[in-house]
Amino acid sequence: MEFERYTITLLVASPDAPKLSEEEAGALQDAHLNHLANLHEAGHLLAVGPLEDPDGELRGLSILNVEPERARELKEADPAVRAGLYRLRVIPWNVPAGAMRFSRTFVPRSRADVAGSEGSA
Fold it and tell me: CB-based contacts of 61: which residues, under 8 Å, 6+ apart?
């Protein structure tokens, strides 16, 4: 059986995250979203989205089409990770060939984009 290899990354809430003002948190969220959109545009990021973890520990999931080491490098460059809001979990994922299909989609670059996409759904 053939497998396709992906890498899953999880954003985990950092217990010692810095305290940010509302303005700082908003700017950091926009920088985080822009980083994700850039990864998608470059073809590395296949799927991404926030998680609704009841415990609040897991904040986001990404599926990348790069090896785990490269995924870690790309995700460590995320401004929200660099700022200490999140820690990363990087997990290799092998999927039976042909089981998953990903297509280009709109990945928001800012909170304004998110608000605009919610209004058009």
Answer: 8, 9, 10, 11, 47, 48, 49, 51
